[in-house]
Amino acid sequence: MATLPIRGPVLAPVGALLALLVVSPPSHASCDPSTEPDKSDIGYARAMVEANCDCSEATIHGDYVRCAGEQANATLVNKSCMRAVRKCALHSTCGTRGLVTCCVTTTKGVTCKIRRDAAYCAANGGTVGSCTSRCDACAAPASGPSCAPRTTSTTTTTIMRGQ
After folding, report:
1. Number of domains into which the chain is organized
2. Which of 24, 115, 125, 150 could pair with 121 in a Cys bridge, judged by C-beta atoms 3.0 to 4.6 Å apart?
3. What is the rounded CA–CA span in Å between residue 130 and residue 151?
């Protein structure tokens, strides 16, 4: 059986394809926030947002969201999860005056909305959430990076009688 010699024009497309495969950077699969390792990656990035972007001191919502994006970009391993982190910052009350997260029970379950104040939330059948982001506010129990840490304080009074 005779073999045919391979000529230059046949090798050019193969060489170009090999060069493309070697030069292309590795990419991550799309983000799945419900499974590991993306779930932990998002959780860590959101914790870094809360640690480095002060919600209570933010005066402009856009500045808070921008800070959250910068933190996510700096910490996420899977960059395709950026949207999930930015969404939680975007759907927060940070950098806004008076807005609250409001948990409302519907026929489809509990949903979270941003409302103008606690009175408006209550008047529309809702309960004010304990977190600043809709991502965390209505989960049972409310927990997540945007939730205020639960602290308790005890006051002790000592009365000293005649020394």
Report:
1. 1
2. 115
3. 13
